[in-house]
Amino acid sequence: MLSSVRKESNVPKPGMWSCVLLGLCFLIINALAGAQTSLQADQQPAAAATPPVVITLQEALKRAQANEPNFATALANARVAGLDKSNARAALLPSARFSGQGLYVQPNGLREVGGEGVINTNPKFVSADARPREYIAQGIVEETVSLGGIAAVRRANAADAVAAAELEIARRGLVATVTGLYYGIGSADHKLTIAQQAADEATAFVKLTSQREQAREAAHADTVKAQLQQQQRERELSDAKLNADKARLELGVLLFSDPRSPYAISISDSPAALPGREQVNQFASKNNAELKSALATLNASSADVLTAQAAYLPSIGLNYTYGIDANEFAARGPLTPEGFRTHNLGYSAGVTVNLPVWDWLATEHKVKQSEIRRSAAKTALTATQRRIIAQLDEFYAEAEAARAQLASLDASVDTAAESLRLTKLRYTGGEATVLEVVDAQTAFTTAQNAREDGRVRYEAAVAQLQTLTGTM
After folding, report:
1. Residue with more model confidence, 408 or 35
2. pLDDT at 116 > cutoff 60
3. N or C: which end of the chain has fewer CB within 10 A?
């Protein structure tokens, strides 16, 4: 009886099969739903991906000014120099301060009657007042008049002008750097496109030589030469990709917190116009930062000479004090035997004259030192003027030559493209050799790269000219 019960328990019931089937269906439905959800999750970032931000040249300059450390240092120096100028001017004005003090000295036990009949207790310290207690609460106005203060203001004004000029020099240097990198990216991208086209051209030529070899119209050496050319173009394409990535990273350091951030640039197809020579000379004479810096440095040296010479002259100190200096902290004193009170509030005024007599020729030596520095500043100013004149002619001649070559470079590209087309037709017809085709391909690629280099050269020359004249 027991064995029969055990056998019946091992046999699955009909209801169990339906439960198992329902469970399997539920698992399959969940698996399909999870796969669909993961597929949608994978597709969502791709759909939500935004295009890279487009950076114009002006935007690049603005971002670079906020991230470049040398420009930040120059900006900080200019702000500090402005505050120094304000402090130097404030030193010429009277200063006011409050002085408060309370003193207690141990009495010696002796008493005396004052001139007003007030009994005073003598302190133990001789330097103390007539009473053990003394209270001081005074407002003090002071002023020092000297030639050194005026010279300090001139020195601060000149230093502020120097800092402002150095800031402008740093800004223009940053402009030239960013401009070169910006157009360098455009050139690198165009060269990458040229390298890709050259690689495609080499691949197509390998196919052409292989077809002609199979048709017994060309030797196997032509195919080998075409394959070598294709391999070279592939290496050049790899280098072009690397150069384009490096150019973007180099500029990305100045633009973004993460230099790997994707971005695109916007460059006009037509190059910038070259201003007239008279206009360039006019701007260069008014807006040259290096000339302003040299001139401000000379003014600072002249102010140093005046500061050193001021030590020969006397200085006058003025002091006005109003307040309390009494034995009680009160506006009026104690009641005297005669029945009246003294006034503790009062004022005092003083004039101090400091006249230099002898300092072992230290002042004379300081004057000579400042005069030597002023002479060096004059030499630097004249050298800066000569250098600016030479740079103006040099940069303008460079820009004119680069602009004149742009049309020639465009014509060279068109000529090389036509030469390549005709040479390939001649090779197809059996009239040209494979070496002529390879040379034509190389000439076309070289002409295209030369055109990109010429565009960068012209833009860099215009940027240098604009930097020199302060028009950018």
Report:
1. 408
2. no
3. N
Report the distance separating Cα 245 and Cα 226, nearest Å: 29
For CA atoms 131, 136, 142, 148, give the dihedral sign: positive
Which residue, 246, 239, 159, is CA-closest to 198?
239
Q: Which two tokens stand for residue 36?
A: 């669909």
Q: Which two tokens stand for residue 255?
A: 């633009």
Number of domains the chain is built from: 1
Q: Distance (Å, rounded) from C-alpha 422 to C-alpha 87?
A: 77
Print the SS3 string covering 120-187: EEEECCCCCCCCCEEEEEEEEEEEEECHHHHHHHHHHHHHHHHHHHHHHHHHHHHHHHHHHHHHHHHH
What is the distance between the alpha carbons of residues 395 and 400, in angstroms, rounded to a whole number?
A: 9
- Evaluate whether residue 313 is within a structural domain: no
Please report, for the domain that includes residue 209, its CATH number. 1.20.1600.10
User: Is residue 455 a part of any domain in this protein?
Assistant: yes
- Distance, in Å, from the CA atom of 434 to the CA atom of 426, rounded to the nearest integer, reads 10
> φ and ψ at 452, to 5 degrees?
-65, -40
Task: Look at residue 219 and tell me if it is in a domain.
Answer: yes
Domain extent for 410: 161-308+361-472
Reported as a single tens digit per residue, the pLDDT across 3-60 is: 443 444 444 444 555 554 555 555 555 554 554 445 444 444 443 457 788 999 899 9
Q: pLDDT for 233-274, tens place per residue? A: 999 999 999 999 999 999 999 999 999 999 998 888 778 778
What are the two backbone dihedrals, phi and then psi, of residue 126, each rounded to the nearest 5 degrees? -70, -35
Quick: pLDDT tens for 266-320. 888 778 778 788 888 887 777 788 888 999 999 999 999 999 999 999 999 999 9
Query: What predicted TM-score, i.e. pTM, was given to this entire model?
Result: 0.75
Residue 275 is given by DSSP the state: P
Q: For residue 229, tell me if it sits in a domain.
A: yes
Structure tokens at 210: 């292989």
